[in-house]
Amino acid sequence: MKLDELKDLNPQQLKAVKTINGPLLIIAGAGSGKTRTLVYRLAWMIEKGIPQKSILALTFTNKAAREMWLRICKLTGKKLKGLTVSTFHSFGSKILKNCIHHLGYKNNFSIYDQVDKTALIKEVAGEMSFSPDSIDAYKVSSLFSKIKTGLIEWDHSNDQYRSLYREYQAHLKVYNAVDFDDLIILPIEIFGKYTDVLETYRNKYSYIMVDEFQDTSNCQYELIKLIAKGNNNICVVGDDDQSIYSWRGANYQNIMQFERDFPDVREIKLEQNYRSTKNILSVANRVIMHNRNRKEKSLWSGLDRGSLVEGHYPKNESDEGSFIARTIKSLHAREDIPFHEIGVLVRTNSLTRYIEEAFLEENIPYRISGGTSFFQRKEIKDIISYMRVMANPDDDINFLRIINRPRRGLGKKALETIRTIADSKGMSLYSAMSAIRYAYGSPLPEKIKHSLNEFLTLIEYYREKLLSNRNMADTLSSFIDSIDYQEYISLEHRSKPKLARYKIDNIKNFLRMLEDWEKDPDNMDPSLYNYLNRITLITRDDIDDNDETGKVNLMTIHSAKGLEFEVVFLAGAEDGIIPHARSLGDGEDNIEEERRLFYVAITRARKKLFISSCLKRRYMKGLMECSPSPFLSDIPDELISFFKGEEPVDSSEANDYFAALKEQFKR
DNA sequence: GCATTCTGTATTTTT
DNA sequence: TACAGAATGC
Length: 667
Description:
By secondary structure, the protein is of the alpha/beta class. It is built from 26 helices and 20 strands. The strands form 5 sheets. Strands 13-14-12-15-16-11-19-20 form an 8-stranded mixed sheet. A 6-stranded parallel sheet has the order 3-2-6-7-1-8, with helices on both faces.
């Protein structure tokens, strides 16, 4: 790295880059060039001769990890070798791959995502004859998360699920499976029990860097602290104002805790915002000001005042959609703003639908990040389930998913019989089936036994091939043909041939992606296990989009974190949506988090910000009266102009105008 | 025993 | 609206 490149940095950033040894806390406000600083810092370290393999950089998403990797490559002009840039979860899975045997699992373990986890809870609850309506699998699942990560303890309010939890854990073990929480918790457990293992990791990673520190959970912090305590070279970067993942266990107070855990910490604040105009930044500051639990900071912008933030009140969600679509069209045509420099942000995934409709209507190219991920689609999950079972036959959850898909005449009754046998021996379904496969006096009818046998033979045949073969995509493709999967899809959706076609295309795409991954020369370990672990941890945003340019970005505020756009539309800024009604239940902390969410949305914008709040909105079946988000009234009049259709409204009239509008549409 | 159709219900954010 | 579970039909 040439020294003059460091001239691009301001004094605080420069100091952050050059402070390599000892604990370092960087408080980086929105748009303060955080990623840039981190990338320079890593490049600087490499330049200073620190071996790449001793550096561990942890990010929040795979996308961020990939971007950081690319930017370091570009900056250093070197091929990176041995540097670890990964997410907490994939880092955890790598540790487990190496040492999970200490805990009695095999290293071909499956990773259960939310869907699998829920399925397992239902399965176990069924076996234990919990009444079906006493189980809200989603709620129970988040309870289990909190218990497992030590966020809450068993008490009288949740004691009824204690036995269920025990069984849940026992089943995971039998299935040789771990859930997302285990990816962090089990490494901690191993480190606690086997200090020599911990020592290895401490020696290996003498320099640690954590991005988005405000979004780390207690146990993620615990894990990283364990490793960092060896050398004390740990740098964490975060902004408590942008902590928006507390519902997933994130604890922004880790920032304060960090100061206590590492008393000799050096602290650097990045407060100059390079992204937004003065106006937009003031709006953001005025909003976040109302939060009580935050570290004091004063973000400032050296850029122009810029135009005022615009507030719009469309009469319903389809009006809002077409307002956004029309405005985008004119911005594109008159001001030459490229589509990909425009972001449309919403609080919930479901809100994207209306906007999508408007985009389709007006022929605006867009891309959505959010909704169901590619890998969550039914047809793809089926194929992946087959792969999972081949990788880890004890994985009952995935086994159950595929055993009768396509139909093999193995229904409820047959499975119940096998389940009973499996449970009596404490085995997985697959092991139980293998055991009774050739046994005399089997409890199963001949016909069932026959198709079971056929099924097992098929799985074993391809398991062998997939594990030894270098060409998984081809093998898988012939496997899919051999079970007539396409036929099955067409038959399932015979009334909607278009849908069937689409699903089949998805599978082809999946195979193509697998092939690309396998043939990538940079891929060190193109094995089945590696692939499966990887795609389980991949999220919706991580899929390579072959052409990201020329498309408007439509996404939730959560997935917009870390991004920026020339123009931002914040749609659905209504009370009940942001702050979301469901988030407000208990505690004042929740409203603060919603406010941070609003803050994150605002600070994505560089030059223009539009906020719209519908007067009425279709909700479930009916039409709902809406009020503007209370956060809107935190914005002082001189920073925002409200619009009536295309005409600006005097700010003093804005409130009256709103009331009048409401009256008008009441009928 | 299995498949299809129907009904009803629940919709926050995601590694 | 979209999906899961129940009821009904084959």
